[in-house]
Every structure is written in structure tokens, then in C-alpha cells.
């Protein structure tokens, strides 16, 4: 069906059918940006806890160096287990924050309902000819331009944010390692927040673009709208009877 013939907005039934088939408006860039912001926020909130936990773990490992019985034989397993649990406990707040952000942003875009039809393998996606068309088609060109644009914009913002700090960073030569580390850490955090904000804005723009593509893709022709309205005017029992007769006729043609 030519795209120019699809001029009507999708009906609720068409939207429901598209969703059942796994067709939704979703931006992976927006999801990634929200997770990045959540990671930075959780690091800012739980950073001291993480540093203290990792430092305690490191002290414990170094302390075990004076006890050879803990580093060989039966003692090695418990030491590795306790070290792994300590590291997991230290980074758990960040990991859980990122997981929660990922769930919220994805469910916010596509909803909570899960349709098995969208998870079924589609043999058409394995068609090499169709795959080549997708790689060389207009959508691939748009995605390539988007990727280049995202890298360029985020890189430019990061560069502009870093340039004013170069003079102050150069003046840190000769100070104590602790003060130097704190200054570099503060500059890195500020740079990360600016890059994350730029990425988030790009993610919102990408979601709006994906939404536009989705709405355009599910548009209907006038004939499809009329046919759907006619089908909805029939009672459910009559529609079921028509489907049964159509299936019986189809089986009869196959057997003849």
C-alpha cells in the first residue's frame, strides 16, 4: 500500500494491534540518558559510602596478606566470597538506582503490558535482501546522521565545558595529591553532568522523532477505516461466525 494513501490517523484498534505485534515508539537514547543521570545522581548521593566500603575491602585484603593460611587452600574460597559480597554491597545502591531508572523510563515509553507476539521470532528479519535494504535505506541514513550528530553535540558541549577549567587545573601543579585528586574529581563530575544533560535533551528529541515515525507508520487508508467501522458495527457473534465460515472455506480449498 503506497504511503501517500495512508492519510488517516490510526484507530484505537489499529494501535492495539500494532502494540500486540511489538510496534511501539521507544527511544534507546532516552533510556540510556535517564540511566546515566540516575548513575551520576546515585554516585553523588552514595559516593562516600562506596569509597568507604571499597577502602574497607582493600584494607581487609591487604591485611590477609600477613596470613598465608587465608591465601591458600581452604581459606581462599571464603576470602574471595567475602570480598565479592563486600564489593557488591558497596556498589548495590548505584546498580539498583540504574535498574529502577531503566524500568521506569522503558515502561513510561511503552507501558507495562507485555505481548508475547512481539517476542516471537520473525523469519522476515532473517531475509538478507530485506536486511540489505534496511542497511542502505533512508532509515539507515537517518540513524547514521543521528549517531554522528549525537557524538558531535555531546563532544562539543564537553569540550566547551572543559576549556574554562584548563587554566585552573594547570594552577594545581605542586599541590598535595589529595587536593589534586579532589579538584580533578570535581571537574570530572561537573563535566559528566553537562554531558549527561546534553545527552538527555538529545534523548527527548529522539523519542519525539520515534513517536513521529510510529504515528506515521500506523496511519490507515480511508478504505481501512471504513472496513474497520463496518466490522465493529457487527455483533461479536456474527463476526465469530464469519471468521469460522472463512476458515472452513479455506480448509475446503486446501483439501480440494
Task: Explain the overall architecture.
The protein has 256 residues and is an all-alpha fold. The chain has three domains: 25-117, no CATH class; 132-219, no CATH class; 222-256. It contains eight helices and no strands. Helix 2 runs antiparallel to helix 3, helix 2 runs antiparallel to helix 6 (177-217) and helix 5 runs antiparallel to helix 6 (177-217). The radius of gyration is 28 Å and the shape is elongated. The mean pLDDT is 79.
What helical percentage do the residues reach? over 70%
Measured between the Cα atoms of the first and last residue, the distance is 32 Å
Total of DSSP H or I helical runs spanning 4+ residues = 8
The percent range for strand residues is under 5%
Cα-atom Rg, whole angstroms? Answer: 28 Å
User: What can be said about the biggest beta sheet?
Assistant: none
The unreliable regions are: none
- Mean pLDDT, as a whole number? 79
- Reading the helices and strands in chain order gives HHHHHHHH
The number of distinct β-strands equals: 0
How would you sum up the global shape?
elongated
What structural category arises from helix and sheet content? Answer: mainly alpha
Number of domains: 3
Provide a concise account of the structure shown.
This protein is mainly alpha-helical and 256 residues long.
Short key terms for the protein model shown above:
3 domains, 256 residues, 0% strand, 77% helix, mainly alpha
Mind sketching the topology for me?
Blueprint: H1 12-20, H2 28-64, H3 76-110, H4 128-136, H5 138-170, H6 177-217, H7 222-233, H8 236-255
